[in-house]
Amino acid sequence: MNISAYFLPSRRPFRPAFTLVELLVSTAVLSILLLVTLSALETMQRSWRETKGKVNQFRGARIAFETLTRNLSQATLNTYWDYHFTATESNVPPADVASPPAGYVRQSELDFRVLPGVEVGTGEEASELPGHALFFQAPLGLSQGYRGLGNLLNARGYYVRFQSNEDQRPAFLPGGVVPVKFRYQLMEYRPPAEQVAIPATTANTGGGANQTVQGNTVYTRPDWFKQDLETASRPIADNILLLLISPQVPIQAAEAAAKAPYWLAPLFRYSSRDANNTTPALDKPTLRRDGTLDQGTRHLLPPLVRVTLVAGEEGSLNQWHAANGNAAVDICAAADAPFAEARHYDRDLTRLKEYLTRERLNFRVFTATVPMRNAAWDSTTY
Questions:
Q1: Which parts pass through the membrane (predicted)?
Q2: Helices (H), strands (E): how many in the chain?
């Protein structure tokens, strides 16, 4: 009997295993791979957030730009033909009934106006009302007391104003809940068709008595667009730095007439009550040698309107405003881009972009040429 068989240890089969060094190395490699993967994932998430933020940031500006161009395309003058008397410079007969009319011409009580934004306000500087302003009438159906009147005539206007949001914050919120911010805003002037009373609790009334918005009763006034400008205007987009408006004619027609497309408004000014918009003065129709009246561009909508909107990004603009003490900055003067002559539009826009880039502002430029569907031009007008 072999007793050693009971006491000798049994031999088990050899199984290979990882050493401690190998485990440490593999753990280090896995950690590095995990860090690389997390870093790449974080970069992708950051890029997605930034892209989404930019899209959302300019969404308000894009919606406002589409609203502006859509309403602008519906502008109308409702022109008609009537006698023109030289003595009264209108279709109203003079006291001398024996005085014959000078001609049979276009007439309209409505107005299409493009002018520098600083001329809209009363006492504001160019830094507070930069760029251009646009005012017109269109069948937009805005009424305070009636519904279903889709073709009701309304005035509409657009301009940029630098202001705080203090008057726009809800009155029931305690102070400090909504911080006061200073920013450029695209304002929409939209009085109703009828006269309405605005309660004294509404912003911009100063807490006094009710104010009456005159509606469609003031179109014949020279400065009708200033009527109830404060009470009938509302911001439709924040961080809009500049609005540029350039009335034009089609390139083919301009080339055929050996003129520039912007010849009818070379100074970024246009009034449908002006016979010659190449000068700031309000010109009346002139009498030709053959005895007919030359109305020029009077009571005519421009065939095309080029609209440019410069929008900034919230974060970079907040830092920029803080660096400037939350005060308005004359952007056009700082960029050496006055936008005073249409022939320098491209040059001024390039300078503006370079200035905004130097100031480290994230921005986007929206541009569109809007055909005016109610423009009634012919070959003699061009």
A1: 20-41
A2: 7, 15
203: confidence class by pLDDT, cuts 50, 70, 90:
very low
Domain of residue 137, residue span: 59-79+112-168+177-189+220-371
What CA–CA distance (Å, rounded) separates 272 from 265? 11
Separation CA 379–CA 382 (nearest Å):
5
| Rounded Cα–Cα distance for residues 175 and 370 (Å) | 43
pLDDT tens-digit readout, 30-41: 999 999 999 888
Within-domain flag for 157: yes
**Residue 271, in any domain of the structure:** yes
Taking the alpha carbons of 220, 279, 107, 68 in that order, is the dihedral positive or negative? negative
pLDDT tens across 77-124, in order? Answer: 999 998 888 888 788 888 887 888 888 888 898 999 999 999 998 888
Distance CA 141, CA 160 (A): 24
Sequence-distant (6+) residues with CB within 8 A of 204 are 167, 230, 231
Secondary structure E strands in 8-131: 80-84, 103-107, 113-116
Count of alpha carbons within 13 Å of 140, Cβ hemisphere only?
25
CA dist 277 and 246 (Å) reads 12
Domain presence at residue 124: yes
Residue 310, SS3? strand
- Report if residue 203 sits inside a domain: no
User: How many independent structural domains does the chain possess?
Assistant: 1
Integer CA distances (angstroms), 70 to 86, 136, 370, in order: 38, 13, 8
